[in-house]
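Reagents: none. Just compute today. Aquaporin Z.
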Amino acid sequence: MKKLFAEFFGTYWLVFGGCGSALFAAGFPELGIGFAGVALAFGLTVLTMAYAVGHISGGHFNPAVSFGLWAGGRFPAKDLIPYIIAQCIGAIAAAGTLYTIASGKAGFVIDATKAGAFASNGFGAFSPDGYSLAAAFIAEFVLTLFFLLIILGATDKFANTSFAGIAIGLALTLIHLISIPITNTSVNPARSLSQAIFVGGEPLSQVWLFWVAPILGAIVAGFIYKTLLQKQDDTE
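Predicted 3D structure written out:
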């Protein structure tokens, strides 16, 4: 249960910090943090929670990461569903908190016809810059693949794991710097689901892509790392 609570709180913080920065700070008049600030916020949430609770649960905070670590031989299949449930509950709880805070401002309303509404992900008309379904799928697949390669490499028993959280946090920052205009950046099915639930409409109907593409990318990364990159013990 401690592992599941760690995943709950870690994913809560990721969604609250990352999506919260997009909702409240990105476009604040004259002092807004912009895309770069939002990208950094997402990276910082993972970095901080990796050191806070990573030693308890492994610090996944993302169903795609759990699948990738399973494919890489680092995580047991029996724990996949419990971890994913804990991650989704944490993400939805964070989105609910963000919605409650946002509702405290007069005139707040979620426009489900607008790209990026309530920090949701999307493609086509719901992509921040109008990218197609195919473009969104490729971006999410490739970015999640490399995210998992970085995670698997940084946490390898032969690596200097003391700095793993920094590498992983910076990787997520870079991923957001690349892809916010494309999909509003997911690479995390729980993060996408949580925001889409509160938006509804087309963003909710598009959330399937932000489960399928990241999970496929993560699984491919796991197999690539295990078969092509992972260093073996000299005795093996």
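The chain has nine helices and no strands.
Action item: order primers for follow-up constructs.
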